[in-house]
Amino acid sequence: MRTIKSSSDFERVFSTGKRIKGRLFTTIIAATPEQRGPSGRVAFAAGKRLGNAVLRNRCKRVMRAGVQRLGGPWDGWDVLFVARRQVAHADPEEIDELMRRALRR
Question: Within 1-105, where are the H helices?
C-alpha cells in the first residue's frame, strides 16, 4: 500500500484537500501532484486525544483494513483518514460503507 510519509505531504493534503466529516472518521481528499505521477497514496491519523497508543493503533489498523477491502489507494488521489474514537469498535461493513460514501463525493 502506497502511503503518505513526509510531513510536507501531510500538510499539503490538510491545507488543500476537501474534508468530508463522518461519524467514525474524517476523510481529507486532495488531487495527486502532477510531478509525482498518477499513483495515489493513503494515510491514517489518530490524535493523542483519542486515548492511549493501543487505542490509536487499533483505530489506524481498522481503517487500513477498510482501505484494503475497498482496493485503495486510488490513482490520482491522496487520501487521509483521521480517526474518531468510535471507529475502533465499529463493524467492518459500516466502515466500508462510510468510506465508499466519502470517496464518492
Answer: 7-16, 53-70, 92-104
Residue 14: count other Cβ atoms within 10 Å of its Cβ: 14
How many angstroms separate the first and last alpha carbons of the chain?
A: 22
Give the residue carrying C-alpha cell 481498522.
62
- Helix 92-104 crosses helix 53-70 at what angle (to 10 degrees)? 60
Q: What are the phi and psi torsion angles at 58 (to 5°)?
A: -65, -45
DSSP string, 14-40: HHHSEEEE-SSEEEEEEEPPGGG-S--
DSSP 8-state class, residue 71: T
Tens of pLDDT, residues 68-103 = 999 988 888 999 999 999 998 999 999 999 999 998
pTM: 0.90
> How would you class 24 by CB atoms within 10 Å of its CB: exposed for 0-12, middle for 13-18, buried for 19 or more?
buried
